[in-house]
Amino acid sequence: MWTSPHRATIAPRLPDEPRPRWSVMIPVYESAALLRETLRSVLRQDPGPGLMHIEVVDDHSVRDDPEAITREVGGGRVLFCRQPKNVGHARNFETCLERSRGHLVHLLHGDDAVRETFYDRMSRAFEAAPEIGAAFCRQIIVNDDGHWLHLMPMERAESGVLDGWLGRIATGQRLQTPAMVVRRSVYERLGGFDRRLSWTEDWEMWVRIATEYSVWYEVEPLALYRVHSRSSTSRQTTTAETIRDVRRAIAVMREYLPADQVEMLTREATRSCAQAAVRRGRRFLARGLVPAARAHAREAVRTHASPAVIAGAAAVLLSSLARRARATNDE
């Protein structure tokens, strides 16, 4: 068992306790408007309470009422838990893991969803490869209205256990939480999400799992990850907090990555993060969001000050100055 003061210990369930195959744990915070679709996507595949535990865990929402939505859509089938105070999404995830009862745990954000056959396909993965600790599927990025924005690249041509997965996932985030299913026993051994992280706690967890377990990839795009302006990810992206948190995650990973790979993986991760910061800076500049563009240019150089990154960041900063000068002249 891994122990750390920065991660919750996930205690095993009691030996004589009835255990369903699935725990679908749905963390929510101020997202009740989208919770209906999330719950319906799960309930359409519900095999019954003997096989699936479904529970909404609310991080003390005050602007909407996820409990009412849970009662309305769940009809008594879905459990509801409310935090006595707001604890933040990482600790809300902890509560989800602690309350889970199933052998397989699926964390499904209250603004995301799954497509038909998700649970059947993912269950088959664990049956086909009993040695795996986790499995994930290809994801679709959608907007507020559920329209497809982007289909994530394929990790391999056919479904199966991934080769060299640690080297890929440790250098950058390649999946979103609703696509991932993890054995509860894995969380019991490795602990909960790292509390030092504010945005990348899921990525760090997937890396931690990859250091100890094989992981299955399902080629069918069966998970929907929603991007919208009200999400915490969107807010943190505009301030470049996401880039700073990636750096924190990379530092955390150095604590346990294999000694013969840690320097190479760290170098690749920081380079990838810096390049992503430059790309985001360009996109923000194109949208006229100059402060966000400048913040990303600065964080890019702080992350990995290679000549290419410095040149890209400088181009963003110079373009932002030129844009500001034009705006001043037009006044």
Radius of gyration computed on alpha carbons: 21 Å
What kind of sheet is the major sheet?
10 strands, mixed
Q: What ranges have pLDDT less than 50 throughout 5 or more consecutive residues?
A: none
Structural class: alpha/beta
| Shape label | globular
Number of domains: 2
CATH topology of the largest domain: Spore Coat Polysaccharide Biosynthesis Protein SpsA, Chain A
Average predicted confidence as pLDDT: 94
- Strand percentage lies at 15-25%
Number of helical segments with 4 or more residues: 12
| CATH fourth-tier homologous superfamily of the largest domain | Spore Coat Polysaccharide Biosynthesis Protein SpsA, Chain A
Name given to the CATH architecture of the largest domain = Alpha-Beta Complex
Q: Count every beta strand, where a strand is a DSSP E run of 2 or more residues.
A: 10
CATH class of the largest domain: Alpha Beta
What do you see in this structure?
With 331 residues, this protein is an alpha/beta fold. It has 2 domains: 22-226, Spore Coat Polysaccharide Biosynthesis Protein SpsA, Chain A; 233-330. It contains 12 helices and 10 strands. It has helices at residues 32-43, 66-74, 89-99, 118-128, 165-169, 184-190, 201-212, 232-238, 241-253, 262-286, 290-303, 307-330, and strands spanning 22-28, 52-58, 79-82, 104-107, 113-114, 132-142, 148-151, 160-161, 180-183, 214-226. Strands 1, 2, 3, 4, 5, 6, 7, 8, 9 and 10 form a 10-stranded mixed beta sheet that branches. Strand 2, helix 2 (66-74) and strand 3 form a beta-alpha-beta unit. Helix 11 runs antiparallel to helix 12 (307-330). The protein is globular. The model has no long low-confidence stretch (mean pLDDT 94).
